[in-house]
Amino acid sequence: MYATVTEWETEAPATPESFNEMVALAFKDFKELGATNLRFIKTGENRARTMTLWPNEETAALAIEAIESVANSYPGVRFLGSEKGTLLAEYN
Hints:
Blueprint: E1 2-10, H1 16-33, E2 37-44, E3 47-54, H2 57-71, E4 77-86
Antiparallel strand pairs: 1-3, 1-4, 2-3
């Protein structure tokens, strides 16, 4: 498994909560790109972070390019950057 962690900033009138609604819709597209899991974290008044799991590095690399290009089309949302790497462990 491979993971991408992406940082977002929202501007008025968007909020992390309203952005979450857009992310939920976008996850359907992410799944078509190969995503297996998405987590959405509110990290500040106007900031959020997503963590997406992918089956492998190649799928993640292609998907993050697509996500970056689409992200800037969301009203009031700014893509700040992302990190990626191999998932070493998962604990539930």
